Structures are given as structure tokens and as C-alpha cells.
Amino acid sequence: MPRFEFVARDPRGRTVRGVRDEASPGTLVADLRREGLVALRVSGEAAGDTRKRRASRGLFGPRTADVELELRQLAFMLRSGVTILNALRIGAEQCPRPRMAAVLRDLAADIREGASLGDALRRHRCFDRLTCNLVEVGEHGGNLDTVLERAADILARKRYLRTQTTTALIYPALVLTLAVATVAYMMIGVIPKLTQFLTSLGRQLPPTTQLMIDVSRFCHAYFVDGLVLLAIVAAVIWFASRTAPGRRFLDETLLRTPIVGRILRLAATASFSYNMALLVRSGVRITAALGAIAPLLPLRLFEQRVHAARERVVHGSGLSESLTRSRAFDGRVTGMIAVGESSGRLDEVLENIAEFHDDRLRDTIRRLGTIIEPVILVVIGAIVGFVYLSFFSAVYSMAGSR
Description:
This protein is mainly α. Helices cover 77% and strands 5% of the residues.
């Protein structure tokens, strides 16, 4: 009989490790569940075969949009009276994405071996901890169709916030890059040709024209050095982001940036509040919810602070007090959470917080787009206008001196 190593969690949230002889991973997971333990990882002979089978599909798994769609379809079929095995089989047969279809077939095979849907989901990286926790709660509570729909809503919300944040940060960066490229082209490609024409006339140039020529010569002389310096800075930032102190420094720098920091804070608060509201409403424990939500936040700094808050909750502190001491979110958010805890309406308060910060996020992104575009256009127009003014002032001054 194969031997399996397992890592599980007991009802108090403590980690339990052990080794057992079982017929299959599903049998081991079922035995642990009967003992009140939740299996987190199973490894061994059969588990290794499973990992090899799943690794053969390539490095990239199903897209988040495909996972969201399949969760909604599973919820619909379960609500219509279809069993989970039949729902997975139908989904695998009708799914147009080969990788997602393979995942559904694996889920059905694991369930046939005795695993629960939540345990089967944990064996695939395309399902995050939050979805797995929700599914486990739905299996125990008998409302699996509802929690699958909520899990799909969370994925949709995550994609929406990521799109909003990315749009807000990429648009000004793209416009600024185009502006810098335009200026660099003028300084390196256009102005040197004008300089050749003006200097060939053999007259003294006006101060503005001479300034333009000096700046162009400086840019042309140090262009390669500038590119090398940018490459070095990019490499340093990349290597710093791979270390814990460097990542923390970069996150804190982003949060201190006037507009970028505000967008990231609003996105993190909205994501945390919305997901926490769904998990609390579904019956997930606070500690499990915090552990599942932390990896979904936009910055590693927020993830670490939520994990620190979770540790305080495990040791008996309240949610609002733990978030305050961990400096995860500002005082207004934690104050509203404290009101929700005292009134017994934590899920409603969290949902209100999410809606409020989501509105502020959309408003900030809209104002950013309204401000950044005309500012960059004015800057580019001023540079182009300065170049033309300098050129024509030199031409007119030479024509008037003849």
C-alpha cells in the first residue's frame, strides 16, 4: 500500500504533519476529514504520479476568465439538480479550452477516488485558497451552488480591480513614454540637422537658439550612457523586488507616490473589503478568510500586514484591533469594521466599505485621466514650440542683419 505524507490543519488552526499508508490520496483526505482535519497537502507515490500527470500540460494553466466561467456553469448545473460528477463531466465535454477541460476531468477523477471538491481544487494552482475555502464551506453547509457563484463573483471582482488599477497606472506611463520618445527624437534626430543649417550661415545665434543646440549636443553625446544607466536602474529594481527588504522598500515607495499610492490603497481596501464580506457571509472563519485574502492584495506589503493581523486574531484579538495594530488600512476603515463587529453586521459593513472605496477608485482614475493627458500635451507642445521659436528667431535675426 502506498505511503503518503500529509500536512493538515486542525479546528484550532494548528498545522498537523504525518505519514500514513492509504490506498489513494482521496482515501487519506477522507480519513483526515472524519478526524476533523483539513488536508492542505498530500505527497507520496500516488500524489507524485498525479503531479507528473498535471505537469505534463505545460507551464501555463487555465486563464482566470475560464475558471470563472466554469464555476458559474457548475453552480448553474448544481442548482438544476445535476450531480457534481455529472456537472464536471459535462463541463469537460463542452469546454472549448483544452487546459480547462483537462482540469475538470482531473477534478472528476479525484472525486471518484473519494476526495471532496474542495480538496480536489487545492491540487490545481488555477484555484486560489479563497475559492477552495469557499467550496469547503459550501460542501459542509449544503449550499455548494451558492458558494460557487460567489467564488466566480470574487474572481470577476479581482479581474475588474486589476484592470482598473492597471489602466490607471499604464495609461500615464505610456503617454509619458511617448512624450519622452518624441523629445528624444527631436533632440537627437531633428535639432542636429537644424544646427548644421544654422551654423553654416556663420552668424551669432540668439540665446534661445544656442540653448537649444547645447541641450541637443548634450543629449546626443550622452544618449548611449543614458540608456546604459536606465538598464542598470531597471536591473537593480528587478533584483531588489526579489528580496524581502527590497520589495518592502519598493512597496513603501509606491505608496508614498502621490497618485499611484492613492490608487493602490483604494484598490487594496476595496479588494479586501469585498472578498472579506463574501467569505464572512458564506460562513468562513475570520482566520481562514484573512489567510485566503492576503495573497490577492495588490502589494506584498498589504499581504504581510494582513498576515500579521491574522496572527493577532488567532491569539484572541478582534479583527478591527488586529488590522489597526498591523497598520493594514487607515483608521476610518478599521473604525467601520469595529462598528460592524459590535453590531453583528460585519458582512454588510464590509460590503459598504468596498462600494465606497470602489467609487473613490473610479473617481480617482477618471480624474487622473482628465489631468495627465492635457499636462503631457502642454509639455510636449511647449518643447516643440520652443524648438520652432528658437529656429525661426535665428533665421529672422540673420535675415535682419543682412
